[in-house]
Design goal:
Elements lengths: L4 H15 L18 H19 L4 E9 L5 E2 L1 H9 L5 E9 L3 H16 L4 H10 L28 H14 L1 E3 L5 E3 L5 H19 L4 E3 L2 E2 L14 E2 L2 E5 L2 E8 L6 E3 L2 E3 L2 H19 L6 E9 L9 E5 L2 E8 L5 H15 L5
Helix pairs in contact: 1-7, 2-5, 2-6, 4-6
Enzyme class: hydrolase
Keywords: Endonuclease, Hydrolase, Nuclease
InterPro entries: McrC, McrC_bac
């Protein structure tokens, strides 16, 4: 997989579509910058987002406190107060809740910023931007990145602006964090394929939602076409992207791999598991529409992020009455080229006007 400056810049666009909130004015100037390192891109997004958050006011939550005070505040702790009485101290042990900026949301931001500053390939200008925001987080603790429970974060009106920032933090901490033999934490040069694959899937879906209103873009679960309805132990068929116009459906399975094909006796072949998966999705979706008695056409596509390998997946196959195609999306070209490739998929498949 090539990771040139153009590709890294396109990661910004992928983030922008995946999270959508990156379209805010504060981030617009990033689109015109060149980034030589992935760390620098993430530091740029984080620095601007944290500065914006400081202006708005850091998110605060009620945190439990226990303290010995001369007067009652909150709830009295009987055991602690009894100890003071035995020692003839005129103090009351109290438990109370206090609004604090020291909560998991701000802890993740501070932890990621410090990691980028200490172990990342970040330009000096970007380091200065991060350092300017950190004093506002002086009362916020630093987390052990391995102990963060990402599924515990709940977003609502007061903290919705943190969604983008925590998404970037998660890419850095989960996708780039490695441990040395000495037990120290450091950042890998690039996000691993697993996390880039999730970003790639979300990007393709949100691009079509935002830019192609002529088709409906969704990510539904595809139902198994069962004769008896017994599906207790069957795996969930979760699609990446489903484009539809009327009863014409294209199911896209987005893949981000360092090696898009596999070698069989020195001959490049499609990955069989991927082909079986998209074929299964297509046949079950077709059975669902056929059961409604409506005219329909269901096709499938494996969409790979283009690699620097000599052989790229590309082809169209007719399988049991359905069209299954394989394409590679070049992300190492200016974004207008990426846009043209994605639009071309829709224009080629949905030839007739809506």
């Amino acid at each position: 997989m090539r990771y040139g400056s153009i590709f890294i810049k396109n990661v910004y666009y992928m983030l922008a579509y995946a999270f959508r909130a990156l379209r805010l004015d504060e981030y617009e100037d990033l689109a015109g910058e060149d980034f030589e390192h992935m760390h620098d891109l993430f530091a740029a997004v984080l620095a601007k987002g944290m500065a914006r958050q400081v202006k708005q006011g850091l998110y605060r939550t009620y945190q439990p406190r226990r303290e010995s005070l001369p007067t009652v505040r909150g709830r009295i702790d009987p055991s602690g107060t009894m100890r003071h009485a035995i020692l003839r101290e005129r103090r009351v042990s109290c438990e109370y809740d206090e609004l604090s900026e020291d909560n998991p949301f701000n802890r993740v931001l501070k932890t990621t910023a410090l990691l980028l500053l200490g172990h990342g390939e970040v330009s000096e200008g970007r380091r200065a931007e991060l350092r300017r925001t950190l004093p506002f987080f002086s009362d916020v603790e630093v987390l052990d990145p391995s102990g963060i429970r990402w599924d515990s974060f709940r977003f609502q009106r007061n903290n919705l602006s943190y969604r983008v920032l925590l998404g970037v933090c998660r890419l850095v901490l989960e996708g780039m964090l490695i441990t040395t033999e000495e037990g120290e934490l450091k950042l890998a040069r690039f996000v691993d394929d697993q996390h880039m694959c999730r970003l790639f899937e979300k990007f393709v879906l949100e691009y079509y939602r935002a830019e192609r209103p002529d088709v409906r873009a969704s990510s539904p679960q595809i139902r198994w076409a069962l004769d008896d309805g017994a599906e207790a132990m069957l795996p969930v068929m979760q699609s990446d992207v489903v484009l539809s116009r009327g009863n014409d459906v294209l199911i896209i399975d987005a893949k981000f791999y360092a090696h898009a094909t596999q070698s069989h006796y020195d001959v490049a072949k499609l990955r069989s598991a991927h082909l079986y998966q998209i074929f299964t999705y297509v046949k079950n979706e077709e059975a669902e529409l056929a059961g409604l008695g409506l005219p329909h056409e269901v096709s499938g596509m494996l969409l790979y992020a283009r690699t620097d390998e000599a052989v790229q997946p590309d082809g169209t196959y007719q399988m049991s009455g359905n069209r299954i195609s394989v394409r590679s999306l070049d992300l190492d070209v200016p974004f207008e080229g990426v846009r043209a490739q994605l639009d071309g998929i829709v224009d080629e498949h949905f030839r007739e006007a809506p």
